[in-house]
Design a protein that fits this description.
Elements (H helix, E strand, L loop, with lengths): L1 E7 L2 E6 L9 E10 L5 H5 L17 E8 L11 E4 L8 E5 L3 E3 L11 H14 L6 E5 L3 H12 L3 E6 L2 H9 L4 E4 L3 H11 L5 E6 L4 H9 L1 E9 L12 H6 L3 E4 L5 H16 L9 E6 L3 H10 L6 E5 L2
Parallel strand pairs: 8-9, 8-11, 9-10, 11-12, 12-13, 14-15
Antiparallel strand pairs: 1-2, 3-4, 3-6, 3-15, 4-5, 5-7
Helix pairs in contact: 2-3, 2-8
Length: 318
C-alpha cells in the first residue's frame, strides 16, 4: 500500500508499506479519501514534544472507503461495504480497524466524500451545548466546526450570532442560517455589538471554536449570568488563563465538548451521517479543497493558511 509519512516539521514523503491483513474481528478498508483536521497542525509545525518520523499514515483520522478484506468472525456481507472509518492512520490507501469502527455510509449518499469523524465531532459539541429553542447562541470562529454548529443550532430553533475574522467565513455562517454576523476585529467593538444584539443581557450559550486565548476571553465576556460556555476549540499549545472572578461571579456552566469515549464518538459519527443523509447537514459547501495523497503537505499548509474560499481540505487516494 501507499502511505504518506510526516518525517519532520512541515515535511512529508510517500512510502510503500506491506499491505496489512485484518485480524479476528477486524476489517481492512481500501480508503477513498481522508479529511484534514486542524488538530494536525500542531504536529505538522514540529513542537518539541513530537518525535519524527511519525508512523506511515498517522494524523489521518477522518477516512472513508470500502471494506476490501475481512478478519475471522466478520460477516461476509460486509465485504465491499462503503464505510466511514474511526481510525488514526488514514493518510494511506488502506487501513485496518475493528469492524465496529467501520461505519456503513448511507447508500443514498452515493460516492460523495464522507469524512464522518469531524461531522461527528460537531454533533458531540452540539449535544454538550444543550441548545434550546429560543436560545441566543454565539459561535466564535466559523471554520468547518463553526459552520456545522450554525446549521445544527439554527435547526434547533436558536438565534445564532456568528463571530469570525474573515468576511467569507461570516458569509458562510449567514448561508448556514446565522441570524447575525459580527467581525472579530477590535475586542471592544465586538463586546459593544454583542451587548446591542442581546439587549445587554449576554448570550445564553457561547461556543468557542478557535482554540486561542483571546476568543476564550471574549466568550466569557459575552455570556449571560448562568450561561453555558462550551469549549470546542482545540487548545493544543499550552496553558490558558481565565478571569476566574468573572467566571465565578456570573456562575457560568463550563462544558468541555471534547470527547474521548470511543462508543460516544462512534454513535456521534453515525448520527452525523444520518443528518447528512436527511439533508440537515450539508457537505458540498464545507469540503472545499481536494488534494491527491502525495500532496498532503499542501493540504496541511492550506489548512493552516486558509486560502480564499477555504473551509476544509480532503485528500483523495490514488
Amino acid at each position: 500500500m501507499l502511505a504518506a509519512q510526516v518525517i519532520g516539521p512541515g515535511q512529508v514523503e510517500m512510502t510503500e508499506q506491506p499491505l496489512p491483513e485484518p485480524g479476528p474481528g477486524e476489517v481492512r478498508v481500501r480508503l477513498e479519501g481522508c479529511g484534514v483536521c486542524a488538530s494536525n497542525l500542531g504536529p505538522w509545525s514540529g513542537p518539541e514534544w513530537m518525535e519524527f518520523p511519525l508512523p506511515p499514515g498517522e494524523l489521518g483520522h477522518e477516512g472513508w472507503g470500502r471494506v476490501d478484506a475481512l478478519g475471522a468472525g466478520v460477516p461476509h456481507d460486509r465485504l465491499g461495504e462503503r464505510v466511514a472509518v474511526f481510525g488514526g492512520r488514514s493518510f494511506a490507501t488502506h487501513e485496518v480497524v475493528a469492524q465496529d469502527a467501520a461505519l456503513p455510509i448511507p447508500a443514498a449518499l452515493g460516492d460523495r466524500p464522507m469524512p464522518a469523524e469531524p461531522f461527528g465531532c460537531a454533533v458531540s459539541i452540539f449535544r454538550a451545548a444543550r441548545v434550546e429553542p429560543g436560545d441566543t447562541v454565539a459561535i466564535i470562529g466559523i471554520g468547518f466546526l463553526g459552520a456545522v454548529l450554525t446549521q445544527l443550532a439554527t435547526r434547533a430553533g436558536a438565534r445564532v450570532i456568528a463571530i469570525s475574522r474573515r468576511q467569507e467565513s461570516l458569509d458562510l455562517a449567514a448561508g448556514m442560517g446565522a441570524a447575525e454576523v459580527v467581525a472579530m476585529a477590535d475586542h471592544g467593538e465586538v463586546l459593544e455589538k454583542l451587548g446591542t444584539l442581546t439587549g445587554g443581557q449576554g448570550c445564553d450559550v457561547v461556543v468557542e471554536c478557535t482554540g486561542y486565548q483571546w476568543p476564550l476571553d471574549m466568550a466569557a465576556e459575552i455570556l449571560r449570568e448562568s450561561g453555558r460556555l462550551v469549549i470546542a476549540g482545540y487548545h493544543q499549545d499550552g496553558p490558558r488563563q481565565v478571569n476566574m472572578q468573572l467566571w465565578n461571579w456570573r456562575a457560568f456552566e463550563i462544558a468541555n465538548a471534547h470527547v474521548r469515549d470511543r462508543a460516544t464518538n462512534l454513535a456521534a459519527m453515525q448520527e452525523a451521517m444520518r443528518l447528512v443523509d436527511e439533508g440537515v447537514l450539508t457537505t458540498e459547501e464545507l469540503l472545499t479543497h481536494e488534494y491527491p495523497l502525495d500532496r498532503l503537505g499542501a493540504a496541511l499548509d492550506a489548512t493552516r493558511d486558509k486560502p480564499d474560499g477555504f473551509v476544509k481540505a480532503v485528500v483523495v487516494m490514488p
